[in-house]
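Database export, one record per block. Field names are fixed; values are copied verbatim from the stored entry.
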Amino acid sequence: MQEQTYHIPVLLKESVDGLDIKPDGVYVDVTFGGGGHSREILQRLNEQGRLFSFDQDEDAEQNIEGEHGNSFTFVRSNFRYLKNWMRYYGIEQIDGLLADLGVSSHHFDDETRGFSFRFDAPLDMRMNKRAGITAADVVNTYDERQLADVFYLYGELKNSRQIASTIIKARTAGKITTTQDLLEVVQPFFKREREKKDMAKLFQALRIEVNHEMEALREMLTAATELLKPGGRLSVITYHSLEDRMVKNIIKTGNVEGRRETDFFGRMNAPLNAVNNKPILPDAAEQERNPRSRSAKLRIGEKK
């Protein structure tokens, strides 16, 4: 598990401590990445304990090291299929689940994947290179309203309609196939002082759409809530407000929309209790050491 070159885990101790690990428990790390969080969990399990780690990216599988016997199982799949895979392995309940929802530094540093505007690369952005549409497909086939919605909902860009309109016009002259093609089209919309932040928001919006991240997160959080044993923990690190809102809502109300559902007596049907009412943030030392952690928030819920 070579996380130092692939990915530096964020809030490592805090997120794993948040699971309140039982040595013989069953745990799931739905975002294996460089293996940092998984390794920390495994160190706290005995021979009876089990860890299932998910990642849909074939690159992540290369970070598995050592022999763990029956303790460790790698699942090469999107975490939205969590419930199906647990059923496949005969697991009815789990003691805890950890998710580090950010994109790994490996993806941003890989010049061939199109996740970063630092490199001129094909507009791909698929976490799973074996399936699905690419960012180029989105940019070249979505109509103006669809594009504007993606940029507004997932990138929170206020000038989303103007950007979408300009992309539609630009692609009539030829397909937009690389990150550089896209940057040349949208650059006039971003003021110099906010250029990098707004570019990052645009690329984030495309990545979320390409990988159906919000739908996958909804399905995973719902499944996790159902799978957790009483006293089981959900420990989730988020990096933008859309993710954080969904995690906060599932802990507070039992659904990602934040709907308050009550029983006959007016008591709220929320299956989790918040362990930390305010999110845990990385300290100054971690933010300095790992700039990617600066937007991270950790929320922990416990099954009632």
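Remark 1: The longest strand covers residues 228-238.
Remark 2: Residues 1-5, 105-109 have pLDDT under 50 and may be disordered.
End of record.
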